[in-house]
Amino acid sequence: MEIRNLGASGLKISAIAYGNWLTHGSQVEEDAALACVRRALDEGITTFDTADVYANTAAETVLGKALEGERREGLEIFTKVYWPTGPGRHNDHGLSRKHIMESIDGSLRRLGTDYVDLYQAHRFDHETPLEETMEAFADVVRQGKALYIGVSEWRAEEIRAAHALARELRIPLVSNQPQYSMLWRVIEAEVVPTSDELGIGQVVWSPIAQGVLTGKYLPGQPPPAGSRATDEKGGAGMIGRWMRDDVLERVQQLRPVAEDAGLTMAQLAVAWVLQNPSVSTAIIGASRPEQVTDNVAAAGVRLEPELMARIDEVLDPVVERDPARTQSPASRDF
Questions:
Q1: CA-CA 20 to 30 A from 97: which of 22, 85, 150, 295?
Q2: Per-residue pLDDT tens for 222-265?
């Protein structure tokens, strides 16, 4: 497993992280989830990403159980706060001081740990002063409940403002967690340059575009039974943007590119993301242990410039690049 620094910080993490969004506590049974985490550990993954909102807190509980007994110092555990949890009352979401201070305690209890390595703002909160949010995060760090702070899906100007406050408060804001893949490149124009300037690393999610870049979805054909595209608990909604014939046809054209590189389609997708020097780690998910093993083989792979150019040529007509697609809800009326 390749090891990288998280942004400009001294924290070292595995280049491939294991995440349990849309799987643990919802899409797969607990025994399968535990088997996937065990495989991730066996494959050298030390970085695990979750969030309180995943399966309405159940995902954190499952991950905590799966990591029980592991040497805590040898793991990097990430979680997030913002989206509604519990009954979803008016203070059960957002980045207010109240919600952050209550949420970190709940996450630590479910994860079975005294601290998380990275505590992330899952979206930008337009209804709470940024100063209040950052001061609450500073207290979380000073209380020893989180070692580092990060954000997720924040725009460049929001990241810059938060970083300035973090410097004043003397807390380490070190990461951003955006969606990023061959098909979704909206961070490249603004977020990445700003983050590079500030020493903030990218912890990217959905490097395989919710499974579309595996090539298993074929144009003109219904999705395979049991696949994410048929999961009404959330997977189908997220993958829907890619379930168009023009996209699926272009993805199929990547097969010879992957073969020439000696990689599976999934490995090619993960390896492509990891070529970006701004990316600290790529988060993978899995419903079966063998998927973890397949994805992990992308760590340390170097794709030749000619091959990268071929990928761009194939996908260019269907790639999303608009930086405005990085956005947070205008209000918390979920």
A1: 22
A2: 776 655 555 566 555 667 788 899 999 999 999 999 999 999 99
- Measured CA to CA, the distance from residue 206 to residue 270 in angstroms comes to 9
250 in any annotated domain:
yes
Per residue in 104-144, pLDDT (tens digit) is 999 999 999 999 999 999 999 999 999 999 999 999 999 99
Kindly list the catalytic residues.
54
Q: How many domains does the chain have?
A: 1
Predicted TM-score of the model (pTM)? 0.91
The residue range of the domain holding 150 is 3-325
Do the domain assignments include residue 330?
no
Residue with tokens 């997720």: 152
Residue 175: closest CA among 204, 145, 151, 157: 151
Tokens of 234: 């959330």
Contact 280, 4 (CB under 8 A): yes
In a domain, 332, yes or no: no
Q: Are 175 and 204 in contact (CB under 8 A)?
A: no
Task: Read off the CATH number of the domain in which 246 is found.
Answer: 3.20.20.100
Query: Quick count: other Cβ atoms within 10 Å of Cβ 43?
Result: 18
Task: Answer yes or no: are the C-beta atoms of 51 and 23 closer than 8 Å.
Answer: no
Q: Assess if residue 216 is contained within a domain.
A: yes
User: What letter would DSSP give residue 176?
Assistant: E
Residue 327: Cβ-neighbour burial (10 angstroms; 0-12, 13-18, 19+): middle
- Which stretches of the chain are DSSP H helices? 30-42, 58-67, 97-111, 130-142, 156-169, 191-198, 235-239, 245-252, 255-261, 265-274, 289-296, 305-315
